[in-house]
Amino acid sequence: MFYSNPSADMLLQPSELDFDLKKRSEILVYHLILPFCKTSGCMKAKVFHYGSIGLITEPCKSAHIAAANAAKEAGVILSYDPNLRLPLWPSAESAREGILGIWDVADIIKISEEETSFLTQGEDPFDDAVVRKLFHPNLKLLLVTEGPYGCRYYTKEFNGRVDGLKVDAVDTTGAGDAFNEVRLREALKFANACGALTLTERGAIPALPSREAVLNALLKP
């Protein structure tokens, strides 16, 4: 359940962003930058990870875009997980336009098969040619998650897929967040396991698995 009409993050204004901070953060998640913007070191991060919920209403939308653009100019890697929550948007069309409106600044994008179909207006999300339509010129890596079946990865030169980890799902909340923590080939195997294990517990944050739990799961046949 989302409470955002309004919540503190929805009220953040561009003028409240502080880009001249000394404290360093390796990865800055946009959902966390909102209440802690003045203590997290926006442009001191190496990776700026953001979603699309902050693009729904003003003034948060302008702050979101300003932060992403400033991160790009500072040479920070931009990681984008649209995390489509259609009921929060005024309409499906506004959601599609909003998500794609900040698409081209991302270096890494993670989407689900459902989001792929939504963004391509109903085309087959399992068709590589369809997925390639979402690949913009400056994108380094596009990831498409397939729930229990794993994920596919796309770069400019090649693409492939990694099988998922079978688990007894209890709650899917947070699986995408867990997946976003790690990337590519062996990393994608690890990411699939992270997402799968998160399904076995309730809640988003409490269900995030430890490194040891993931490694143990990967050792199982």
Describe the structure.
The protein is about 35% helix and about 15% strand. With about 220 residues, the protein is of the alpha/beta class. It has one domain (about 10-165): 3-Layer(aba) Sandwich (UDP-N-acetylmuramoyl-L-alanine:D-glutamate ligase). The protein has a 7-stranded mixed sheet with strand order 1-2-3-4-5-6-7. A hairpin with a 4-residue loop joins strand 6 (about 150-155) and strand 7. The model is unreliable at about 20-25 and about 30-45 (pLDDT under 50). InterPro entries: PfkB_Carbo_kinase, PfkB_dom, Ribokinase-like. One of its GO terms (cellular component) is chloroplast stroma. Belongs to the carbohydrate kinase PfkB family. One of its GO terms (molecular function) is fructokinase activity.
| CATH superfamily label | Ribokinase
Give the number of DSSP strands. Answer: 7
Q: Which CATH first-tier class would you pick?
A: Alpha Beta
What's the end-to-end separation, in Å?
A: 36 Å
**What is the count of DSSP helices, taking H or I runs of 4+ residues?**
8
Instruction: Report helical residue fraction.
Output: 25-40%
Coarse morphology: globular
In the CATH hierarchy, the architecture is 3-Layer(aba) Sandwich
Biggest sheet architecture: 7 strands, mixed
Count up the domains: 1
Structural class: alpha/beta
Strand content: 5-15%
Examine the coordinates and then state which fold CATH places here, giving the name of the CATH topology.
UDP-N-acetylmuramoyl-L-alanine:D-glutamate ligase
Radius of gyration, in Å, reads 17 Å
In the sheet with the most strands, the strands line up as 1-2-3-4-5-6-7
Could you report the average pLDDT, rounded to the nearest whole number? 79
Along the chain, the helix and strand elements come as EHEHEHEHHEEEHHH
List low-confidence stretches: 21-27, 30-43
